[in-house]
Amino acid sequence: xxxxxxxxxxxxxxxxxxxxxxxxxxxxxxxxxxxxxxxxxxxxxxxxxxxxxxxxxxxxxxxxxxxxxxxxxxxxxxxxxxxxxxxxxxxxxxxxxxxxxxxxxxxxxxxxxxxxxxxxxxxxxxxxxxxxxxxxxxxxxxxxxxxxxxxxxxxxxxxxxxxxxxxxxxxxxxxxxxxxxxxxxxxxxxxxxxxx
Length: 196
Description:
The chain has about 200 residues and is an alpha+beta fold. It contains five helices and eight strands; from the N terminus they run H-H-H-E-E-E-E-H-H-E-E-E-E. It has helices spanning about 15, 20-60, 65-75, 120-125, 135-140, and strands at about 80, 85-90, 100-105, 110-115, 145-150, 155-165, 165-175, 180-190. The strands form two sheets. The protein has a four-stranded antiparallel sheet with strand order 1-2-3-4, covered by helices on one side. The protein has a four-stranded antiparallel sheet with strand order 5-6-7-8, with no helix packed on it. A hairpin with a 5-residue loop joins strand 1 (about 80) and strand 2. The protein is globular and about 55 Å long.
């Protein structure tokens, strides 16, 4: 097909081709706007991850303050009061992200360090059958998802994480309906590994 044979509706979807001329003229702008918004959302997620990397490189234990942490990383998702007046700030980069950072702040408000909570090693060494949802949230912070499985009479709490080589995985805590004790744990591939 030569370019001269293309009609003005060749690049429109079937519904757009039948639309009035004014609506057809706006269709490419709508597609561009949708694509721009999707790209901006992805860039925002990458920017959050970039802020974490910047914070790791810039913050010095004992020198910087909680306010410095918040300036670099934003408002925490969760704040835990620790014995003696210390605090832990959780930065959950979900539900679509694969990282959760826990920042330790001393009783005098000084930054003490940060660590990534969502690793296979952490899950394997810390999670124990019989733990409550609250105990697991204290260890790993807020899960990315709560998925009911009606036929199994279960609810899964799902934490998304990434293994070396950009392998995206899920750590799943299985709870029987109405019982606040984990009965089993499993690892599965994340749904983003095989889209479609």
